[in-house]
Amino acid sequence: MKPLIALVGRPNVGKSTLFNRILRQKSAIVDSTPGVTRDRHIMPGEWQGKQFLLMDTGGYCAANDVISSSMIEQTLTAIRDADCVIFLTDVRSGLTYDDLEISKLLQRTFQNKQIFFAVNKVESPQLTIDAESFVSTGFTNPYFLSAKDGSGVADMLDDILESL
Ligand code: GDP
Ligand code: MG
């Protein structure tokens, strides 16, 4: 069985963009249209010769109209099935209530699961400084990424595949 890596986080942090970046293909629909990505949100990938499955989550929700409990429900289901988790946040919007809810959920419920905490959209020195404050989630070793331009993604993947 190939290990399963789940990508979780609230809507619009860039999960589908990162999914596409990691798989180097346009398989997930970035602008979450309800229903569209449902049957394609687990895709095989390869990094440094190691194979894995990557799961995008939340792409099948209406982007700006998500009920928090359903987001939490999806996140829980995704994580239970996964061997490890990428928890993605967005430096441009800052930390939100939903980010903190997911943080608490991960820390309380999944203490034995490897969680890679990443701050996305970090594309300038100022945003790097802003991203430092995301350690207030309790995740003290954040990866700073840009799913859009790819920076930081390789370093995180090295660590993830190493851990599996
Ligand atoms: P999801 O809802 O978490 O799957 O987020 P999407 O991947 O659909 O991205 C939401 C929005 O953020 C889109 O407009 C993306 O183009 C944008 N976005 C995603 N990743 C980045 C990034 O690394 N940098 C910037 N500046 N924008 C990004
Ligand atoms: Mg998405």
UniProtKB/TrEMBL annotation:
Annotated residues for binding of GTP 1? 9-16, 56-60, 120-123
* Domain EngA-type G, residue spans: 3-164
State its role: GTPase that plays an essential role in the late steps of ribosome biogenesis.
What assembly does the database describe for this protein? Associates with the 50S ribosomal subunit.
Similarity comment:
Belongs to the TRAFAC class TrmE-Era-EngA-EngB-Septin-like GTPase superfamily. EngA (Der) GTPase family.
Q: What is this protein called?
A: GTPase Der
Parent sequence residues shown = 1 to 164 of 437
